[in-house]
Amino acid sequence: MDVLGIDIGGSGIKGAPVDIQAGRLTRERLRIPTPHPAKPEPVAQVVRQIAEHFAWEGPVGITFPGVVTGGVIRTAANLHHSWIGAKTGELRHGATVINDADAAGLAEATFGAARDKSGTVIVLTFGTGIGSAVFVDGVLVPNTELGHLEIRGKDAEHRASDRAREDHDLSWDKWAERVEEYLKHVEMLFSPALFVIGGGVSKKADKFLPHITLDTPIVPATLQNEAGIIGAALTAARSG
Ligand code: BGC
Q1: Residues 209 and 125 in one domain
Q2: What's residue 225's pLDDT?
Q3: Whether 93 and 159 share a structural domain
Q4: Less packed terminus of the chain by CB within 10 Å, N or C?
Q5: Residue 134: how many CB atoms within 10 A of its CB?
Q6: Within-domain flag for 109
Q7: What is the position in ligand 1's atom list of the atom closest to the CA of 129?
Q8: Are residues 161 and 148 in the same domain?
Q9: Is 66 in the pocket of ligand 1 (CB under 6 A)?
Q10: Are residues 84 and 142 located together in one domain of the fold?
Q11: CATH code of the domain containing 170
Q12: Are residues 210 and 147 in the same domain?
């Protein structure tokens, strides 16, 4: 079965039909820059544009970069604050909406680097923010928001996201120091069996992972930038 997956990020909104048995895109993905200000109506308009591009009438799964519970958006750290309290149906009527990192984590747990891993596995996405997906024996604990842990008195994602690397013009090894400090904190809290590093930086893992030393094994995500789209589609298929 094919499901349209749409991944809403702070800088781009990406979508493609997904073969949810195989865990892969069946058409080339479409990326449209996130409108600014990223208020509900302009973002929903881009979601419509993506569905129209693929002439889509089937099920749709959408990721959102904030807490999503009970069909309501609860937080929106990197999109416009007017999202807070919005119903997920405002994105698209009938679509399934899930936190972006949880979606990426589900895709990695089903098809990628976290597949068949038992114990506590933590998938972290480094992009505009830091997203987290925590699994215990393959079961997701949703909306964990570990990117907002406080490190040196600051929100961790303001120090160690990929955007922070760009904004502060950090070299890869300087940025890796910040990521390591952050991961050590998460390691202390959860004693995970595995860390999986996702988001746009996962394809450049060779630039920073060698600079990171932890007790916990750490691997790059294998689905990279497509994990959110695949996880969104998977969630819609499972809930439909
Ligand atoms: C949001 C999370 C999201 C992460 C990655 C954070 O700022 O609070 O919900 O998963 O960014 O987009």
Answers
A1: yes
A2: 86
A3: no
A4: N
A5: 22
A6: no
A7: 11
A8: yes
A9: yes
A10: no
A11: 3.30.420.40
A12: yes
Residues paired with 106 in a beta bridge: none
Which residue among 67, 126, 157, 182 is best mutated to probe the pocket of ligand 1, counting the most ligand atoms within 8 A of its Cβ? 157
Q: What is the pTM of this model?
A: 0.97
Predicted local distance difference test score (pLDDT) of residue 240: 72
* Residue 216 CA, ligand 1 centroid: distance in Å: 23
Kindly state the DSSP code that residue 87 receives in the 8-state scheme: B
Residue nearest to atom 6 of ligand 1 (CA): 129
Q: What is the DSSP string of 147-165?
A: GG-EETTEEHHHHHSHHHH
Ramachandran angles phi, psi of 26, nearest 5°: -100, -10
Q: Tens digit of pLDDT for each residue in 144-162? A: 999 999 999 999 999 999 9
In single-letter form, the type of residue at position 146 comes to L
Please tell me if the CB atom of residue 231 comes closer than 6 angstroms to any atom of ligand 1: no
* Co-location of 45 and 14 in the same domain: yes
Stretches in the chain below the pLDDT threshold 50 = none
CB atoms within 10 A of CB 200: 17
Q: Provide the number of structural domains found in the chain.
A: 2
* 199 within a domain of the structure (yes/no): yes
Nearby residues of 168 by Cβ (< 8 Å), 6 or more positions away:
none
